[in-house]
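Deliverable D5.2: sample structural annotation.
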Amino acid sequence: MPVNTRLHRLQSRLDALRARGLVVYLGVFILMALAIGVAAFAFIHLAVPNTLTITAGPKGSSFYRAAEKYKTILARDGVTLDILPSDGSPENLQRLTSAQPSADIGFVLGGELKDGNAQNLMSLGSVSYQPLLIFYHGKIRHLLSEFGGARIDIGAQGSGTRTLALEMLKVNGIEPKGATSFIEVDAKDPEKDLNGDRMDVIFMMGDSTSSELLRKLLRSPKIHLFNVTQADAYVRRIGYLNKLVLPEGSLDLGKNLPAEDLNLVAPTVELIARDSLHPALSDLLLEAAREVHSGPGLFRKRGEFPVPLEHEFRMSPDAVRYYASGKTYLYRTFPFWLASLIARALAVLVPLALLLVPALRFAPTIYRWRIESRIHRWYKVLLDLERDNFVAKTTQDRVALLRQLDAIEVSVNRIVIPASFGDMFYDLRGHVDFVRKRLMSEAPPPAESA
């Protein structure tokens, strides 16, 4: 084989060895870049959103007023709450369950969910009662069934009042298309309408009924607030209802309004969120709910709300944790922005640590393999050279092999390794000399050029 061909083959071997090392280094670099990329993506993806949208209720309603208080409280921690007015609880639920939701959270009355389409929703808890107030004109009535054949305002289409009114009337055998006349509008002046010829009965929610209007209606001699004497039965029959008592004199002690304790029924108002809500925002919302709804009121005791009552919607795991132990340590100890940053960092670093700590056990072995591979790969070249010597037939072939060996020795001498691996390096140089002696014993040294 010509000398140039042998040298070219040697160079190919050396290039192949370098290429293998390059592949290893490139693979390590790609893995590191991938790990950094995944960590960066996770760090950004886990960021707590700083904007939320709540679907509330009509402007001026208790839902809307509560949302405005939430907005002020969340702003303290740099979270912006956008408020969407709505026609009430049914529209709030529709917005949350829509394929393209326009809100993240909303107030929903118990009993609104009819089709069970709430897989993507969860409850942060009940925040208040929404008492149903039934005013009527004429003689005292004791049963809802006595309103059969009357003119009843059950509230506008899409309102929570209408939903509950229809259900309560239905269990009393009063349904649309019967002798009873149903009016589906929002009464602008209930006192005038009840004392006139427009209606006999009106259903109203406490949300849309001010204390002043309550007093005005109770002072009217021919208008009465229906005392739900069968309240316990309604609560048993309609699972999402609660029994409330409007105490004697609670609206006006001087005039003793009402003149006796009155039983009422009320669904609870739940703060409903989409299941994509960030846990940190869940805590912030529940802190706001506690600040807004925990005070005493006409229909609630101090500290009664918010409360983790589960009805149609499953309770959020984050809410369950909050009710059991409060805010997490980070958000309890640090400002919201700093706690959020630390939580994101931990969410990225802890999984990486779980992967890296076991890997570090193999780091010395991998390091040793990397250094030894710089030396061991030359033994393959030496073995190939000796095999070529076995089949060499002429002196010229052996001279070419010696030149290959010189090239190998030059490359070996350029190896940079730690001193702790010096014994292996010198062993390799000794084996190079051993192969040279074998070759020179069978071929004369190459002639020097003139």
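Annotation notes: Residues 3-45 form the longest helix (43 residues). The longest strand covers residues 262-274.
The annotation will be released with the project's public dataset once the embargo ends.
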